[in-house]
Amino acid sequence: xxxDVYLKAREKLDVKTVADAVATAEIDETSHVQIAFAAGLxxxxxxxxxxxxxxxxxxxxxxxxxxALGDPTEEAGISGAxxxxxxxxxxxxxxxxxxxxxxxxxxxxxxxxxxxxxxxSRVRALESENATLRRELAxxxxxxxxxxxxxxxxxxxxxxxxxxxxxxSKKDLVRRLLDHGVDVGV
Length: 186
Description:
Layout: H1 2-24, H2 32-51, H3 54-69, H4 79-109, H5 112-149, H6 152-162, H7 170-179
Helix pairs in contact: 2-3, 2-4, 3-4, 5-7, 6-7
Protein backbone atom coordinates (compact mmCIF):
# COMPACT_ATOMS: atom_id res chain seq x y z
CA UNK A 1 0.00 0.00 0.00
CA UNK A 2 2.77 2.42 0.91
CA UNK A 3 4.50 1.64 -2.32
CA ASP A 4 1.34 2.45 -4.35
CA VAL A 5 0.90 5.76 -2.54
CA TYR A 6 4.56 6.58 -3.10
CA LEU A 7 4.36 5.76 -6.83
CA LYS A 8 1.16 7.82 -7.30
CA ALA A 9 2.70 10.77 -5.46
CA ARG A 10 5.86 10.45 -7.54
CA GLU A 11 3.78 10.29 -10.75
CA LYS A 12 1.86 13.44 -9.78
CA LEU A 13 5.11 15.20 -8.91
CA ASP A 14 6.61 14.29 -12.29
CA VAL A 15 3.49 15.48 -14.14
CA LYS A 16 3.52 18.73 -12.15
CA THR A 17 7.23 19.25 -12.85
CA VAL A 18 6.72 18.68 -16.57
CA ALA A 19 3.64 20.95 -16.63
CA ASP A 20 5.55 23.72 -14.85
CA ALA A 21 8.51 23.36 -17.20
CA VAL A 22 6.23 23.55 -20.24
CA ALA A 23 4.37 26.55 -18.82
CA THR A 24 7.57 28.52 -18.21
CA ALA A 25 9.40 27.47 -21.38
CA GLU A 26 10.09 30.07 -24.03
CA ILE A 27 8.24 29.41 -27.24
CA ASP A 28 10.35 29.70 -30.37
CA GLU A 29 8.19 31.40 -32.98
CA THR A 30 10.68 30.85 -35.78
CA SER A 31 9.24 28.87 -38.67
CA HIS A 32 11.02 25.82 -40.06
CA VAL A 33 11.39 27.61 -43.41
CA GLN A 34 13.25 30.51 -41.78
CA ILE A 35 15.52 28.07 -40.00
CA ALA A 36 16.19 26.18 -43.23
CA PHE A 37 16.90 29.40 -45.12
CA ALA A 38 19.31 30.61 -42.43
CA ALA A 39 21.09 27.24 -42.39
CA GLY A 40 21.46 27.29 -46.17
CA LEU A 41 22.65 30.88 -46.11
CA UNK A 42 25.37 30.22 -43.55
CA UNK A 43 26.49 27.01 -45.27
CA UNK A 44 26.68 28.65 -48.69
CA UNK A 45 28.44 31.76 -47.33
CA UNK A 46 31.02 29.58 -45.62
CA UNK A 47 31.50 27.56 -48.80
CA UNK A 48 31.94 30.69 -50.89
CA UNK A 49 34.39 32.13 -48.37
CA UNK A 50 36.46 28.95 -48.44
CA UNK A 51 36.23 28.00 -52.14
CA UNK A 52 35.26 31.23 -53.95
CA UNK A 53 32.96 29.19 -56.17
CA UNK A 54 29.45 30.55 -56.68
CA UNK A 55 28.07 27.34 -58.21
CA UNK A 56 29.30 25.17 -55.36
CA UNK A 57 27.92 27.68 -52.86
CA UNK A 58 24.50 27.53 -54.56
CA UNK A 59 24.48 23.75 -54.40
CA UNK A 60 25.48 23.80 -50.74
CA UNK A 61 22.68 26.30 -50.03
CA UNK A 62 20.06 24.03 -51.58
CA UNK A 63 21.39 20.87 -49.89
CA UNK A 64 21.58 22.53 -46.45
CA UNK A 65 18.11 24.07 -46.78
CA UNK A 66 16.60 20.72 -47.85
CA UNK A 67 18.36 18.95 -44.98
CA ALA A 68 17.02 21.50 -42.49
CA LEU A 69 13.50 21.21 -43.91
CA GLY A 70 13.43 17.46 -43.35
CA ASP A 71 11.23 15.84 -40.72
CA PRO A 72 13.32 15.11 -37.61
CA THR A 73 11.39 11.92 -36.86
CA GLU A 74 12.23 10.39 -40.25
CA GLU A 75 15.94 11.24 -40.39
CA ALA A 76 18.59 8.57 -40.29
CA GLY A 77 21.62 10.85 -39.86
CA ILE A 78 22.44 14.02 -38.05
CA SER A 79 22.69 16.36 -41.05
CA GLY A 80 19.17 17.76 -40.64
CA ALA A 81 19.62 18.31 -36.92
CA UNK A 82 22.95 20.06 -37.47
CA UNK A 83 21.45 22.20 -40.23
CA UNK A 84 18.53 23.20 -37.99
CA UNK A 85 20.92 23.95 -35.12
CA UNK A 86 23.02 26.16 -37.40
CA UNK A 87 19.87 27.87 -38.71
CA UNK A 88 18.51 28.59 -35.21
CA UNK A 89 21.89 29.89 -34.06
CA UNK A 90 22.12 32.14 -37.09
CA UNK A 91 18.65 33.59 -36.55
CA UNK A 92 19.33 34.17 -32.85
CA UNK A 93 22.60 35.93 -33.65
CA UNK A 94 20.85 38.07 -36.25
CA UNK A 95 18.17 39.13 -33.75
CA UNK A 96 20.74 40.04 -31.13
CA UNK A 97 22.98 41.98 -33.51
CA UNK A 98 20.20 43.74 -35.45
CA UNK A 99 20.43 47.08 -33.55
CA UNK A 100 24.19 47.19 -34.09
CA UNK A 101 23.88 46.29 -37.76
CA UNK A 102 21.19 48.95 -38.22
CA UNK A 103 23.49 51.58 -36.71
CA UNK A 104 26.38 50.53 -38.93
CA UNK A 105 24.19 50.53 -42.05
CA UNK A 106 22.78 53.96 -41.19
CA UNK A 107 26.29 55.31 -40.65
CA UNK A 108 27.40 53.90 -43.99
CA UNK A 109 24.42 55.30 -45.88
CA UNK A 110 24.08 58.72 -44.25
CA UNK A 111 26.00 61.61 -45.71
CA UNK A 112 28.67 62.58 -43.19
CA UNK A 113 28.34 66.31 -43.92
CA UNK A 114 24.60 66.25 -43.28
CA UNK A 115 25.12 64.31 -40.07
CA UNK A 116 27.84 66.73 -38.90
CA UNK A 117 25.64 69.74 -39.67
CA UNK A 118 22.79 68.12 -37.76
CA UNK A 119 25.09 67.55 -34.79
CA UNK A 120 26.41 71.14 -34.96
CA SER A 121 22.86 72.43 -35.03
CA ARG A 122 22.00 70.34 -32.00
CA VAL A 123 25.10 71.65 -30.16
CA ARG A 124 24.08 75.25 -30.94
CA ALA A 125 20.58 74.59 -29.62
CA LEU A 126 21.99 73.03 -26.45
CA GLU A 127 24.40 75.95 -25.94
CA SER A 128 21.52 78.41 -26.34
CA GLU A 129 19.44 76.47 -23.83
CA ASN A 130 22.43 76.38 -21.49
CA ALA A 131 22.86 80.17 -21.73
CA THR A 132 19.17 80.66 -20.96
CA LEU A 133 19.46 78.41 -17.91
CA ARG A 134 22.54 80.32 -16.74
CA ARG A 135 20.60 83.61 -17.01
CA GLU A 136 17.75 82.11 -15.03
CA LEU A 137 20.17 80.92 -12.35
CA ALA A 138 21.77 84.37 -12.20
CA UNK A 139 18.32 85.91 -11.89
CA UNK A 140 17.44 83.53 -9.06
CA UNK A 141 20.72 84.24 -7.28
CA UNK A 142 20.13 87.96 -7.79
CA UNK A 143 16.67 87.66 -6.28
CA UNK A 144 18.12 85.97 -3.21
CA UNK A 145 20.79 88.63 -2.92
CA UNK A 146 18.28 91.47 -3.40
CA UNK A 147 16.00 89.93 -0.80
CA UNK A 148 18.87 89.45 1.64
CA UNK A 149 20.37 92.93 1.22
CA UNK A 150 17.21 95.05 1.38
CA UNK A 151 14.40 95.40 3.85
CA UNK A 152 10.75 95.32 2.80
CA UNK A 153 10.57 99.13 3.09
CA UNK A 154 13.63 99.54 0.82
CA UNK A 155 12.10 97.24 -1.74
CA UNK A 156 8.78 99.13 -1.64
CA UNK A 157 10.65 102.42 -2.13
CA UNK A 158 12.47 100.95 -5.13
CA UNK A 159 9.17 99.67 -6.51
CA UNK A 160 7.49 103.09 -6.18
CA UNK A 161 10.41 104.74 -7.99
CA UNK A 162 9.92 102.38 -10.92
CA UNK A 163 6.11 102.43 -10.90
CA UNK A 164 5.84 98.81 -9.78
CA UNK A 165 2.95 97.47 -7.70
CA UNK A 166 4.15 97.65 -4.05
CA UNK A 167 1.87 95.32 -2.06
CA UNK A 168 2.56 91.68 -1.30
CA SER A 169 5.31 89.68 0.34
CA LYS A 170 9.01 90.45 0.08
CA LYS A 171 9.48 87.63 -2.44
CA ASP A 172 6.64 88.95 -4.61
CA LEU A 173 8.14 92.43 -4.55
CA VAL A 174 11.60 91.13 -5.46
CA ARG A 175 10.12 89.14 -8.35
CA ARG A 176 8.26 92.18 -9.69
CA LEU A 177 11.34 94.39 -9.38
CA LEU A 178 13.46 91.87 -11.29
CA ASP A 179 10.78 91.60 -13.98
CA HIS A 180 10.96 95.39 -14.36
CA GLY A 181 14.71 95.39 -14.87
CA VAL A 182 16.16 96.18 -11.47
CA ASP A 183 19.92 95.76 -11.53
CA VAL A 184 20.80 92.81 -9.31
CA GLY A 185 24.09 94.41 -8.32
CA VAL A 186 22.23 97.18 -6.39
